[in-house]
Structure formats: structure tokens, C-alpha cells
Amino acid sequence: MLPAAVLAVPAAQEWRTYGHDYGDSRYSPLSDITPANVSGLKPVWTYHMRPPDRASRGFASSENTPIVVDGIMYVSTPYGRVVALDAESGKQLWAYQVPGSDQPATRGVSYWPGDSKNWPEIVFGTRAGLLIALDARTGAPAKSFGKDGVVSLHSDTVMQGFPSAALGVTSAPVIYKNLIITGSRNQETPQQGASGQVRAFDAATGREVWHFNGVPQPGEKFHDSWEGESWVNRSGVNVWTGLTLDAQRGIAYLPFGAPTFDQSGNDRKGASLFSNSLVAVDAATGKYLWHFQVVRHDLWDYDLPLTTLVDVKKDGRTIPAVAVMSKASLLFLLDRVTGKPIYDVKDLPVPTETDLVGEAPSPTQLMSITPPLGRTSFDMSELANLTPQQKAGCDKLIADQKVIGAKYFQPPRVDHAVARFPGNWGGIDWSHAAFDPKSGTYIVNASEIGSQQMMIRKTDGTYDMRYGYQWFWDKDTHMPCQVPPWGNLYAINVNTGAIVWRSVLDVTNGLTDESIYSTGFVSAKIDGNSGVTGDIFANYYKSGISGAPAVLSTGATGLYYHNFGRIGTTASLGIYQFSQQGADDQVSGSAELGMRYQF
Predict the structure, then answer these.
(1) What pLDDT, on a 0 to 100 scale, did the predictor assign at position 56?
(2) How many C-beta atoms surround the C-beta of residue 156 within 10 A?
(3) Cα–Cα dist 133/119, whole Å
(4) I need a surface site. Which of 234, 348, 372, 481 has the fewest CB within 10 A?
């Protein structure tokens, strides 16, 4: 039974998809939170994601941004449940436990409004590779969908003869009319395993309607971009970050990642499409429209975690555009209909020196009119010396792994660990952007965490990481080894491509008593005349924050909220709401919170 407060609420007052809309703008038109009152926001209610019967499992992380539709908040939790809450009170309406030890995608759920024969559904993927549809009213499995509300994504075609290969879902699907469109996460290594195929399913029945291969198969366009047999059973080239959708034009944008293995390519020479490419397809049929390869012959794990629909005003006209960024932190603005760059793109030489046998790094990479966001190189003279512990930890790391400096797009080596920037986390990673259509300002969070990788040759002649994934920091304090800054918030004017301001994010564990990471969850100033200026008006810090917030009005009482996708404490995980109208300061969980303002 839904609460009486749940009425039809205008979409502008809610947060109905993971990124507010399927263009992933993370922009809310609500204007009641202002520079003048943002510091006065107070907690209203807390919901702890970890149920009592899971207390023995300890802390689990999440990257969720809740969605809110008609006053109901839907949340995927890292404890195996999807829950529905009354957004006004935080009261739990229903909870669904994913079967076994599986868990829902940590980056949210999606809402299908239903049709004349079917009730609305909450749809999500799971870590184990299931697609699940629930009745949005009750949380019960949608009986007409697949088998009792569940579709397995482990088809023979996708698994490519490797039935035990890794396959799961980490992001919310996109809903287009009666289609559920989803990517997947597959393995990082070895080279062969599950396909990165993107698929669309009928929302009512779970039947597959179309699929698109990230690695073109024989007879498909661009199959010849793979040299020899390098395409056979190739894993990777998947969409793990979620899709972007232009519903008006019926175009879905698929940001494909790198092939496996993504830090060595001596077994996959050539363009290897659609690796590291944004691909536009007809959302109804999956038909190829265009592609733009952002990174050539990826040797750095530079996937495409960030795509956003924007409008660019240039030469007296408004161009519907799509912004795309890889972890290399380069912004490309493309005409979303044709795929052509709106601003000049240059093909510039990059380093190619490596001691990996048979490796053929691309001699050039595409560069944008917008400068890279953050650090792109490192010299040993740039080592930090902020605390004795940090210096000692970094000195040991450098000596043990034979760390050397690197230029932009420096290939990896066997004889040394190359400290490259950006690292495996970027630069740019998932969910850290918002677009203000009024000012044409694109707000992007960029970290400056490097990765030093030393490679090792395997018996089959390919390569792997000698020490596994590495981060260029003191392992105890997590303080980076290079001089600050270690994270920045950037604003880019999409109408010129220029960076208009940069705000340094200056919080990290090791320098505070709170064990806080510099994740960029800060509030930025909004000025009704000039747009965003980058001045910070309020900070709400809380350890464990990883998901972007949602902004909404419940309508029933006029309260305005800042909803957090992830708030972590040593005891629990919770969602907080903030009200301008005052509330008791005493809430369960820790008192200090983290916030990033959404525009």
C-alpha cells in the first residue's frame, strides 16, 4: 500500500534516473537551495542500508544515487537489497532481497512506467549477471518478466565458451519506451572471456530485442579493424559505466571501454574497434549510426566513464552535443547527431618507447581544444615531502618497484614501474560531472592519483601487471607521493571549450582526523546572473561518500532535500536528507556529512 503523501509530482521536482535524466546532466532546476542558505541545511532523516541480520558482514561500500518517482525513493544497497522509501519520512515501504549472496548494481536502479497491461517496474542488474524487474508498488518480482522477474545475462553467445568467466552489472540500465538497455562489467584479465555486448530487452517480458557487439564479429562493419585472430573470444570492450540516451531523437550512446588486457596490446595491434569509443546507435533497433574513438591502442586502462548530453551555442546556432571523456581527462564535444567534433581536434605525437616485446604503441593520440583536466606527467623532482610517514612510505615504494617518471600516454615497461598520470582511476571517473544549461557550464571532478605499473611477461608471450593494480601513494596514509594538488573541480564553458575556473579540493585522509578522501563532494556557488563561479560556500564531510547526491522537492510539504547516494560510517550506511525549514540536529550515525552540489 503506497502512502497517501505519494501523489503525481512534476518531474522537475524529482530525481527520476541515476543522473537526474538519461542525458546524465545531474542538473536540477529547483532554486530554493542558494549560496545564502546552503550552509544552513540540516539532516531530516536517516535510513541505514545494512539490515540487522547483516551486521556481522561489516561495512560494505556503495556508489548509489537514489532515484525518486512520485514521492517514492528507490535505492540499491550494498547488502543485497533494493528498497523503496517514502521520500518525505524515510519510512521503508518494501524491501527485496536479491537471491543468494548476489547484490544489485551499486550504481542504482531504473524505473519503467509500465503500459496498459503492466504495472510500473523497478529494473536493475546484479553483480552476478542477472537482470531483475520488480513491481514498483510492492517490490514483488514482475511475474511476466523472464522467469519470475529474472533474466540471466549469461547467454552462450555472450560467454563465448567461458561459462565461468566474470560477467555482471555495475550501473543502472537506460529505459527507452518499452526497452531496457544495459551494458555489463566483465573481466580485466585474461584476454579471452565474456563479451562486452550491449543488449536491449522488452520491459514487459524480458525478451532480448537487439544487441550490439563491442568487438565486431565476422560480417559486421569494422570487423577488419582487429588484426588476424585477435578478435576471437576477446573480452573487455564493454559498457560498465552506463549508457546515455537522447530520447527525443531515439539515439543511445554507448561508451565502450578498453579490450582485455587493457595495459598491454602486443596481441591486439591496430584500431581494435570499438575499444575506447563512443558509439551512437538507434535506441529502438541497435543499428550503428556513428563512432568516435577517444583513445587509440589503450595501454593505460583509459576507459570512457563520462558522457553527458549538452547544448553548445556556437556561430549563432545551438548544436545538440554529447560530451565524452576518458580517464585520460580529455574532453571532446561531439555533434550528437553526426558524431563530428564541434571544436578542432589535433593529432599529436606521444611517447612510444617500451621494452614490451611485440608492442606497437600508437604514435599519436587525439587532443582537444580543452586542456587535459589535471596532471598528465610526473618527474621525480615533483615528489612531496609533507609528513615523515608519507615521505618514508613513498621512498620505499619507489625503491621497491623501481619507479620512474612519465610523460602523457607513456607506455608501460618491464624494467621499471612507470608512474603515469592519470592513473587507473583517472583523472576522470564515473559520475563526476554536472551540466548547467543556463550558463553552458560543465562541472567536472578530476582526481590526481597516479598509477605505477611494472609489467611481467607470461609464458604465452603476453603481459600482465607484476604487482597488480598500484596507486602512487603511501599505502598507510593514502597520501599521494607527488606534490599537491591531488584533486580539482573544473568548470568548462561548452560554448568555447575553455576552462573558466578551477577549485582545488584539499581534503584527504592522512591530513585530518576524519579519514576523509578528497572525492569532491563540495557545494559550489550559483549566481543567477553569471552562472557558477567556483566559490565554495559550504562543506559537509563524511567518510565513505562515493555516490553523487540527488536534489528534489517532495511537493507535499515544500521541503527541499539533498539526498546522498552513499554515506558511510564504521557502523552503517545511510541516506541523509537536508531541509531548509529546520530539523533536530540529533540524527543516528555520525554528525558530519559530505556533499557535492548538483546544478
Answers:
(1) 64
(2) 8
(3) 11
(4) 348
Report which of 284, 213, 277, 211 is spatially closest to residue 247, judged by C-alpha positions. 284
Cell 564493454, residue located: 238
Residue appearing with cell numbers 576471437: 232
Owner of C-alpha cell 519470475: 148
Evaluate whether 121 touches 587 at the Cβ level (below 8 Å).
Answer: no
Q: Are strands 72-76 and 81-86 parallel, antiparallel or unpaired?
A: antiparallel
Q: Which helix (H) or strand (E) is 85 found in, with range? A: strand 81-86
Of 292, 370, 301, 283, the closest CA to residue 330 belongs to 370
Low-confidence stretches of the chain (pLDDT beneath 70): 1-8, 55-58, 431, 506-547, 554-599
- Kindly report, residue by residue over 279-289, the tens digit of the pLDDT: 999 999 999 99
Q: Are 534 and 491 in contact (CB under 8 A)?
A: yes
pLDDT in tens, 196-247: 999 999 999 999 999 999 999 999 999 999 999 999 999 999 999 989 999 9
Give the residue among 19, 3, 8, 45 at the shortest CA–CA distance from 574.
45
Tell me how far CA of residue 63 lies from CA of 526, 544, 566, in angstroms. Answer: 26, 10, 6
**How far is 382 from 400, CA to CA, in rounded Å?**
19
